[in-house]
UniProtKB/TrEMBL annotation:
One of its GO terms (molecular function) is RNA binding. InterPro entries: Hfq, LSM_dom_sf. This is RNA-binding protein hfq. Pfam families: Hfq. It comes from Cupriavidus metallidurans (strain ATCC 43123 / DSM 2839 / NBRC 102507 / CH34). It comes from the Bacteria. The keyword Nucleotidyltransferase does not apply. Coiled coil: none annotated. GO terms for biological process: regulation of DNA-templated transcription. Keywords: Plasmid.
Amino acid sequence: MKKEKKAPRPSRKLQHLHYAAHGASRNAVIVHLSNGTRLTGVVLASDNYMVLLGQSAEDPTPTLIYKRAITVVTPAHAPETTSVLLEAETSPDFVRLYTPRTRKRR
């Protein structure tokens, strides 16, 4: 019986490069978690499952975050996009999509 080889996951490699770039630059990032919490700090280290986030590069007590709880990692110096979205809603070119309500199942 032949063993099937699984295709390599390019997203894991891309994710690893992303965290490695943040860790090497030592710039502050904002980590958005799936429960709505936002954490700000510097990526100290990362592996396949976890990220160490500290307040500075020499933080003696960094925060351990599981990657499955992370939704988005953005640089802290990036502009907020919420103001752009609010301006789009008030612009005359913005048209809300109509989504009909579905009947509830009994």
